[in-house]
Amino acid sequence: MSELVVYSIPGSPFGRAVLATLEEKRASYRLSPVAPGTMRSEPHILRHPFGRVPVLEHNGFMLYESQAMLRYLDRVLPAPPLTPADPKAAARMDQAMNINDWYLFQGVGNVIAFHRVVGPRVLGLTPDEEAIAAAMPKAHAVCNELARLLGRQRYFAGDGATLADLLIAPQLDFLAQTPEWVPLSAGNRNLVDWLERMNARPSLKATTWERVADMAKAA
Ligand SMILES: N[C@@H](CCC(=O)N[C@@H](CS)C(=O)NCC(=O)O)C(=O)O
């Protein structure tokens, strides 16, 4: 029997993307919570040599890096497909996924969402206002570019949700919980509507921070 295990922590946007992909596929899976403070020690460091989450295990096959996991899941669980067949649409999906990793998370999500949401909630930290302010020019550039690429489409690569939408939604959902989202979303109504559309999907509803925390408690 096929066993899919996701090693993650509640509140991880990358972890949520993997869980939401499994939900879209209606796959049966198990969350194995990684205790905070143990990511850089054994056994987790053996699963992920860079000490991060998520990690996917499929019948003993271990995989880290969310893009690799999302593409793997789309190949081993082909229905419903989450990669467009059209090469140009697939290229847009890939492009948006790389924007997520290189520009949206690095320097935007891992600063603004960290200081406003994760740090205070998990570590009891006070937001670093200087760091947040310094991240805003990049945050504006990324949100404006995502809105430009989205244009009038329903999803980043056309009419149907793809891996790109599932990777980006958890990151933007975090940003949308911060006061910075007001200026970042101003003039980007299509991005706000897209986020509402994504948050209404059962896969995103099933993988909120609270729902993943419940899964972790039950594990
Ligand atoms: N490139 C990795 C990024 C994973 C990542 O940064 N995960 C965050 C949580 S969302 C993490 O583990 N942070 C812990 C740390 O940096 O110590 C991926 O795509 O999976």
Structure description:
- This protein is an alpha+beta fold and 219 residues long.
- Helices cover 59% and strands 8% of the residues.
- It has ten helices and four strands.
- The protein has a four-stranded mixed beta sheet with strand order 2-1-3-4.
- Strand 1 (4-8), helix 1 (13-24) and strand 2 form a beta-alpha-beta unit.
- Helix 1 runs parallel beside helix 3 and helix 4 runs antiparallel to helix 5 (129-150).
- The radius of gyration is 17 Å and the shape is globular.
- Bound molecules: glutathione.
- The site of glutathione has 9 residues, from helix 1.
Structural class: alpha+beta
Small ligands present: glutathione
Strand coverage percent: 5-15%
Shape type: globular
Order of strands, widest sheet:
2-1-3-4
Number of E strands:
4
**Gyration radius, rounded:** 17 Å
Largest sheet: 4 strands, mixed
* Distance linking N and C termini: 19 Å
Uncertain residue segments:
none
- Provide a count of the helices: 10
User: What is the succession of H and E elements?
Assistant: EHEHEEHHHHHHHH
Fraction of helical residues:
55-70%
How would you state the average pLDDT, rounded? 97
